[in-house]
Write a structure and sequence with these properties.
single chain; about 200 residues; alpha+beta; NADH Oxidase; four-stranded antiparallel beta sheet; 9 helices; about 45% helix; globular
């Protein structure tokens, strides 16, 4: 539980670079995260070039974590490929079936797709991947800050995001410049109820 209790949102990063192997481990944690129906509806766009990071920080309203982090990871929800008749869905659900007949899983997914607003669902799945990445970052002795506040149109332009994909989150990654403060969370009894 150390990664959970030790994780803090870093508000200002040092200029220390992120080692390639540590970055790889963080990205791999996201890749291995669980997802509904095993669809893994995400892509991770790593931005570590100074000029592009500056433009991306501008799209994030120049919030300090975005402006100071040496690496920004844009987590993108792949919405268009989630149509039940897409080759992508067939491939993923066939793999998810693990050698069994994928038809029941396909039927369940089609019913879900027809009743759900798929774009927000896909963004939510990306948040799961982000959580795994943040915990792995702590394990790698790195700091993160999830940034959900951004100008979507400008962000899309900066990273040349194609239609059919939606930015879910920008994850700032690096070494925190400040010592983490105390954890501030609501009391257990305010959060948890047994029904």
């Amino acid at each position: 539980m150390n990664e959970i209790t030790d994780r803090r949102a870093c508000r200002r990063f040092s200029n220390a670079s992120v080692e390639g192997e540590k970055l790889r481990c963080v990205l791999e944690a996201g890749r291995l995260a669980p997802s509904g129906f095993g669809l893994e509806p995400w892509r991770f766009l790593v931005v570590d070039k100074t000029q592009l990071r500056t433009e991306l920080a501008d799209a994030c309203f120049n919030q300090s974590p975005a402006a100071t982090a040496p690496v920004l990871i844009v987590i993108v929800a792949r919405v268009a490929v989630l149509h039940p008749d897409s080759d992508y869905v067939l491939q993923q659900l066939t793999a998810e079936a693990g050698g069994a007949d994928p038809a029941p899983v396909m039927e369940g997914y089609r019913a879900f797709y027809e009743s759900a607003d798929i774009a927000p669902w896909a963004v939510g799945q990306c948040q799961i991947a982000a959580s795994f990445m943040m915990l792995e970052a702590v394990h790698q002795q790195l700091a993160t800050c999830p940034i959900g506040g951004f100008d979507e149109a400008l962000l899309r332009k900066v990273i040349s995001l194609p239609d059919g994909e939606t930015p879910a989150l920008v994850l700032a990654l690096g070494t925190c410049a400040d010592k983490p403060g105390p954890r501030r969370r609501r009391a257990t009894e305010d959060v948890i109820a047994y029904l």
